[in-house]
Write a structure and sequence with these properties.
The structure holds two protein chains of two kinds. Chain A is α/β, with parallel strands linked by helices. In chain A, about 25% of the residues lie in helices and about 30% in strands. In chain A, a hairpin with a 4-residue loop joins strand 5 and strand 6. Chain B has one domain: Beta-grasp domain (Ubiquitin-like (UB roll), Roll). In chain B, strand 1 and strand 2 form a beta hairpin. Classes of the chains: A alpha/beta, B alpha+beta. At the A-B interface, helix 8, strand 23 and helix 9 of A face helix 1 and helix 3 of B. The structure holds flavin-adenine dinucleotide and FE2/S2 (inorganic) cluster (FES). Flavin-adenine dinucleotide (FAD) binds next to helix 1, helix 8 and strand 23 of chain A. FE2/S2 (inorganic) cluster binds next to loops of chain B.
Chain lengths: ~425, ~110
């Protein structure tokens, strides 16, 4: 989710399609995740003829992570439902997916990556799609076996097994992943307490209205909360987690702890290679880094956010896919795809949250609909009345039209938005 | 195995064998059919799996729920026979299904 600073990106903007490469060259992609798997497929679709090699350190071929805290954790989809493509698809497309290999360094002078076993893989074009890792909780006891985080399929396997026998779970961090896991845990009959450092949920990523709604929703399902609370230690008996101690001395009983306090960009390779990085690998509109032979896409990038006149690092599927499309088009000399409005979704209980745009500060908010009835949307407006963000709970029409308004920089009246007698379609009329 | 045919805006036809129980979207994606991006992976949250179903088939499908209907109403260029392919589950009865992908999805 957004983690943006108000820094204009103007100086780095170049024209897309201008840096078309030799289509016979070797493209090496580091990271076989959502962005890496997608860009490989798109390169072939758009006419790249040379070798395409995807190097990933996980055991699986590229897969989607969102279901790991949703449908997969609930047991509604199997592993094959997570894979982006069938196993034989990559062979048919002459895409070489090498799983279980870790890239240890980039040798820019020789235009090759070095694997952890010393093997060198030469590239003409390198695409970094290394994503993020779960931010570790720096307290005593965090390394105990019952303390888990959720980023990969391997993490998800451990969490699912632990939830099957857990009685009481403490979730550290009231962000999307923690809350989604909490909702699944409640459905499995596990007791849940969420510990949040801030005074409310989703503090950096959603409005107070959305946070209050989700707090009430979780409370109605029996989840307890500790706000403005710092974890001091994770307590153990005979090597097993028994609870979480907070800074004020409170101890929360728990036999399972899920840490969901955000993610750290995997910029290590890029930094060691001397590429420009600032909480993310810095890229331009076409996903080019400070080295013309190296692109970066997905969660790992700090990218221009043209609609908002600043740059930021986004952690979303939409961002991973958009940047895969931008990089593939630029490499294959195709016109840049239309600019997308960032968007995100989250499923908890029977509530579907869809967010279009990025919730930045200093903007007035208008609520349409009644949160008590479980279906409403929060519109964020600029001083000029332009829609910047729409947060929609079980309100897909508001999400869909809001996404268009944001892209078109529509100016709207707050009173018309709030007027539920007016059909969604007529608000802008 | 039922067969599903996808026809792109420019007229390319792809017919593939579909697993029963998978969605029409999943069938397209795992076979690499262009024009069905399915950004949200089937969560009924993105509308990038929009298809236009041939009339004779449209009437045989389970009707859309409210969420799908709203998503479709505000999708780009909706048609009377528009559906979200992630919400269409392949059954034996859908053998021969034909869907078109819209001009905006290529
Ligand atoms: C539980 C969970 C739920 C989520 N839910 C949603 C949601 O509902 N909606 C949404 O929009 N987004 C969601 N996200 C975020 C979304 O999954 C990410 O934004 C997306 O995966 C980013 O894609 P990526 O390719 O940049 O990174 P990733 O998918 O993380 O892929 C990066 C890959 O690179 C590998 N790698 C890193 N370094 C190396 C190296 N040196 N050598 C080899 N391989 C390496 C990593 O192991 C990983 O496999 C969720 C994420 C998680 C974890
Ligand atoms: S795949 Fe996103 S709505 Fe169907």
């Amino acid at each position: 989710m957004p983690d943006a600073t108000k820094r204009a990106f103007g100086a780095q903007q170049r024209q897309s399609g201008a840096s078309m490469k030799n289509l016979e060259g070797a493209v090496v992609i580091v990271g076989a995740g959502h962005a890496g798997g997608t860009v490989a497929t798109l390169l072939r679709q758009q006419g790249w003829r040379g070798p395409v090699v995807v190097l990933g350190d996980e055991a699986a071929a590229p897969y989607q992570r969102p279901p790991l805290s949703k449908a997969w954790l609930k047991g509604e989809v199997g592993l094959d439902g997570l894979l982006l493509r069938k196993a034989d698809f990559y062979d048919q497309q002459r895409i070489e997916v090498r799983t279980g290999v870790c890239v240890a360094a980039i040798d820019r002078a020789a235009a090759a990556v070095v694997l952890s076993d010393g093997e060198r893989v030469p590239y003409e074009v390198l695409i970094l799609a290394t994503g993020t890792r779960a931010r570790p909780l720096p307290v005593p006891g965090a390394a105990l076996p019952g303390v888990l985080s959720l980023r990969s399929m391997a993490d998800a396997d451990r969490l699912k097994a632990a939830l099957a026998t857990a009685r009481r779970m403490a979730v550290v961090g009231g962000g999307y992943i923690g809350l989604e896991v909490a909702s699944v845990a409640r459905a499995l009959g596990v007791d849940v307490t969420v510990v949040e450092r801030e005074a409310r949920l989703l503090a950096r990523v959603a409005s107070p209205e959305i946070a209050a709604h989700y707090q009430a929703l979780h409370e109605a399902h029996g989840v307890r909360f500790a706000f403005s609370a710092a974890v001091e230690a994770i307590e153990q008996e005979a090597g097993r987690v028994v609870g979480v101690t907070l800074a004020d001395g409170t101890c929360i009983d728990a036999d399972l702890v899920l840490v969901g306090i955000g993610a750290v960009a995997n910029t290590d390779l890029a930094e060691a290679a001397g590429l420009a990085c600032r909480d993310g690998v810095v890229v331009d509109e076409a996903c080019r880094t400070s080295d013309p032979a190296i692109y970066a896409i997905g969660d790992v990038t700090r990218r221009p956010l043209a609609l908002y006149g600043r740059d930021g690092r986004l952690e979303s599927v939409q961002n991973a896919l958009e940047q895969a499309r931008l990089a593939a088009a630029d490499l294959c000399g195709k016109p840049a795809p239309v600019r997308e409005v960032p968007w995100f979704w989250s499923d908890q209980y029977d509530a579907k949250l869809q967010i279009a745009g990025l919730p930045f500060d200093g903007i007035s908010r208008v609520v349409r609909g009644n949160p008590a009835q479980g279906s409403f949307a929060v519109f964020h407006l600029t001083a000029e009345g332009m829609v910047q963000t729409v947060e929609a709970v079980n309100a897909p029409a508001e999400f869909m039209i809001g996404r268009q308004w944001i892209g078109q920089r529509h100016v709207l009246s707050a009173s018309r938005i709030a007027d539920c007698a007016l059909p969604v379609k007529e608000i802008a009329a | 195995m039922p067969t599903v045919t996808y026809i792109s805006f420019s007229g390319d036809r792809h017919s593939v064998d579909a697993d029963i129980g998978k969605s029409v979207m999943e069938t397209a994606v795992s076979n690499g059919i262009p024009g069905i991006d399915a950004d949200c992976g089937g969560a009924c949250a993105c509308a990038t799996c929009h298809v236009i179903v041939e009339q004779e088939w449209f009437e045989r499908l389970t009707p859309p729920d409210d969420a799908e209907r709203s998503m479709l109403e505000f999708a780009v260029d909706p048609q009377p026979c528009s559906r979200l392919s992630c919400q269409l589950v392949v059954t034996e009865a859908l053998d021969g299904l034909v869907v078109h992908t819209p001009s905006t999805q290529r």
